[in-house]
C-alpha cells in the first residue's frame, strides 16, 4: 500500500473515532433506521394487498339478474333492474376502472348504477366508493355502525384507524341502513342483515333471484374473519366484539341459502365454480352445503382464537 493511500485510510479511521466522526456515524445510523422503517411499512402495505385483489376476472352471470363483476380476489356483484342497477362493493380505488369495464363487457352501462352498497367498511371493499359516486351519481347506502368509518375515510375504524396505509377518501353516506332494512329498486329487494364483529357494521346481504321457473335464496356474506391482531378479550376500542361475533354466527346460521357468495372470491370458491358453470347445466353456485360448511369452519376458527386469548389474559 502506498504511503498516500495509507495516510488517507488512517485519516478516515481517525476521523470516525473523533467527536465529529461519531456524529457522522450517528447521522448515518439514523438515516439507515429511517429507511428501514419506511421499507418495512412499504412491505406491510403491500402484504395487505393480495395479488389477486387487483387481478382481472371475466365477468359473468351467476343467476337471474345477478352478475359477478369483481376481480379474482375481491368480489363485486351487479344486480340489474329496469330502473337501473345495484352494485355491491367498490373495492380499492384502483379497481374501479376494472369494475366499470366488467359491467360494460356484460352489455350494461356503469353510469346506470343507481345504488352502491358495501359488505363492510374496510379499504379493500369501500375505498373506491367516492370515485364510483362521482362517476355514476349512485346513492350510497351503509349500515349504521359502519357509517362513521366510511365518512372518516377509515379513521374511525376500531382496528386500523391509526394506520395511514388503511385510510382512503372519505365518502358521504346518502342513506343510513339498520338491521333488517330493505333496499328496493325495479322489483328487486335486498335485505341488510347486521353481522358484526369483523367491523361494527359488517353487513350480509340476502336477495331472491329467479332462473327459469326456479327462485333462489342468495346470501352474500359480509365477513366472518378474525383478522390478525384482533383483540377479542378486553378490547377498549370495541368492548362487545366477541358478543358481536356470537350474534353474527346466529344470524348466518338462520339464513336460508341456495346461492352462496361473499366479499372475497375465496369464500365461495369463485374460480372453481366459474370453471364448472355451463349453459343448461347445474349451477355450481347453488351450494347450500358449502355455505353451511364455510360458516361452521369460520365459527370454529373464531372459538379457537377466543379461547387462546381468554387463556392468555388469565
Question: How do you describe this structure in short?
Answer:
By secondary structure, the protein is an alpha/beta fold. The chain is 38% helix and 20% strand.
Overview of this structure, please?
The chain is of the alpha/beta class and 314 residues long. It has one domain: Ribonuclease Z/Hydroxyacylglutathione hydrolase-like (Metallo-beta-lactamase, Chain A, 4-Layer Sandwich). Helix content is 38%, strand content 20%. The protein has 9 helices and 12 strands. It has helices spanning 3-17, 19-48, 96-105, 123-126, 129-136, 147-151, 241-254, 270-276, 288-313, and strands at 60-63, 66-68, 77-81, 84-88, 113-117, 139-143, 175-177, 182-185, 188-194, 203-211, 214-221, 259-262. The strands form 2 sheets. A 7-stranded mixed β-sheet has the order 1-2-3-4-5-6-7, covered by helices on one side. It has a 5-stranded mixed β-sheet with strand order 8-9-10-11-12. The protein is globular. The model is unreliable at 1-14 and 28-47 (pLDDT under 50).
Summarize this structure as a short list of keywords or feature phrases.
single chain; 314 residues; Metallo-beta-lactamase, Chain A; seven-stranded mixed β-sheet; five-stranded mixed β-sheet; 12 strands; 20% strand
The CATH superfamily label reads Ribonuclease Z/Hydroxyacylglutathione hydrolase-like
Helical proportion? 25-40%
Q: Briefly note the CATH topology name.
A: Metallo-beta-lactamase, Chain A
| Order of helical and strand elements | HHEEEEHEHHEHEEEEEHEHH
Percentage beta strand: 15-25%
How are the strands ordered across the major sheet? 1-2-3-4-5-6-7
Q: What Rg, in angstroms, do the CA atoms define? A: 25 Å
Coarse shape: globular
Number of helices, counting only DSSP H or I runs of 4 residues or more: 9
Q: Note the gap between the termini.
A: 66 Å
What is the annotated CATH architecture?
4-Layer Sandwich
CATH top level class name: Alpha Beta
Number of strands: 12
How many domain units? Answer: 1
Based on secondary structure, the structural category is: alpha/beta
Query: Which whole number gives the mean pLDDT?
Result: 89
